[in-house]
Write a structure and sequence with these properties.
heterodimer, A: alpha+beta, Arc Repressor Mutant, subunit A, Glutaredoxin, four-stranded mixed sheet, B: alpha/beta, Rossmann fold, Ubiquitin-like (UB roll), five-stranded mixed sheet, 14 strands, about 15% strand
Amino acid sequence: MSENKEIKFSEDALALVSRIINRYPEGRQKSALLPVLHIAQAEFDGWLSPAVMDYVASLLNIQSIEVYEVASFYSMFNLKPVGKCVVEVCRTGPCWLMGAEDIVKYMEKKLGVKEGGTSADGMFTLKTVECLASCGTAPMMQIGETYHENLTLQKIDDILDGCRNNVTEPIAHWRKNKIKA
Amino acid sequence: MGRKLLTEHINVPGIRNLDTYRKHGGYETLKKALGMKPEDIVEEVKKSGLRGRGGAGFPTGMKWGFLAKPEGVPRYLVCNADESEPGTFKDRYMMEFLPHLLIEGMAIGSFALGCRTSYIYIRGELMYVFHILQEAIDEAYAAGLLGKNILGTGFDFDLNVHCGGGAYICGEETALIESLEGKRGNPRIKPPFPAIKGVWGCPTVVNNVESIMAVVPIIRDGGDEYAKIGIGKSTGTKLISACGHLKKPGVYEIDLGLPVEEFIYSDEYCGGIRNDKKLKAVVAGGSSVPILPAELILKTAAGEPRLMSYESLSDGGFASGTMLGSGGFIAMDEDTSIVKNLYTFTRFYHHESCGQCSPCREGTGWMEKLLHKILDGHGTLQDVDLLWEIQSKIEGKTICPLGDAAAWPVASAIRHFKSEFEEYVRNPQNIQKDRHYYRVNNINPELV
């Protein structure tokens, strides 16, 4: 995120946040924190800077520390800048049984990064993650909200090419097109 | 062929939409339930013998019966859709294709328990399913099946879907409640139990997706009818998510009591082992439950055929049995490295430990390191003994069952496959590094 960008949600996102807060009893707006952090990642390039977390705290009328301690606990929140596509490859038992290790090694080679790294062109961040409840269609990986299942190396080539050709701005799990009412 | 109480219509095109769901009898049971006394609904669920489908197997009707009902205090039904147990993917499948079955079950359960607002807590990674549920909820509101004065009965009920942020521990019910309150998913010390003090300090029932869906056929047909299915105290049908080296992995609805052998080998279910290899081992109920070698999963130590039921799978205790758990059924063929598979599980529990209790926080990491050392060919026989020692000091010594869940796979792998650990120690030169794992589509090893 560029330094001079003002930290403020879009009108659509603000409207969504107030709808979400209304789902919880009065005074319990902190309950909206996880959904709002997902929206924040969608609004601000797929990651949460301290300034963005401070902004979320102000939206929910809670202390910044309450946001930091939560954002750092859950694995879906990125606390460092990420590529436009965060590729999350499942590595747990059932996927491992079906060749997840091959998938990770192939991706590392193809993207020229180690697990956790971002490709030189800023397009891909490669993450390994724990079980995504897709064990019957292993091996698998997630990009944004999309599950890519029964992976083969050919499929990975096609998926990554598709990303390169079509993705112009960072995709978060909560897609931007799902923020509009 | 087993009965299809939950999955009967799952392949109907468009069943995700309200109109199609209603054409196939959807929301008729809600109509029936709203004409019943709430306590009679709880009674039917008790009669059905339904046991929690998330893994613990605690009787659902009894759990409902424990809910405190102080005057003037709201109470909540929370659906646990945080499905994260490795090997388990049934709830995801059901919610993706039959979101209205969950909504109908939530409305019936909430009416029975006197809840006016309820929540579905879904793991954040299933964001696309979160949106499917939200769209289905919006449809139900527009049709007067949620909101004020549902179906003209005077019952007001709001249903919300809430997404998590990626944490296995939030499948533990008190961690889930903390997470729903916008906090870290640290399990609470019990008592007080959620039935007395749950979300926002109010009485709360937390039920798994499949348990809540099962309430619909139970109320439709009656608890007694449901209890006729199954065997002994394992009543009804169960969703089994089968994965690993099976010819036909997937989600199957079975009558409890089906022989394990039939489930693995018959064409109606998993169709046998891929590439016609031999079965080596099975983790029958999600990664937490003890692993069993083929001979003990097919037959009990006493030589009886092993059945897919709570009692039969646990026959013999942990010495020779396991658990039905969540129904995450992971099969491994003869080439599988049990030690390496265990390493991925242990790494998982280390990653997912919330860190509150030292035995779990430190012990899971220690076990992961020891397994890594053994796999790398630097292990000693003392390391195997140490692994046993560590797991025995985690089990039963933590606030929540994650510690047990991390200990049991280690204990059972050593119990049943000790010689394999010793082989790694004694003959590290024999470890074929590229044969640790299954190759993707017989790929050229030079590519990776």
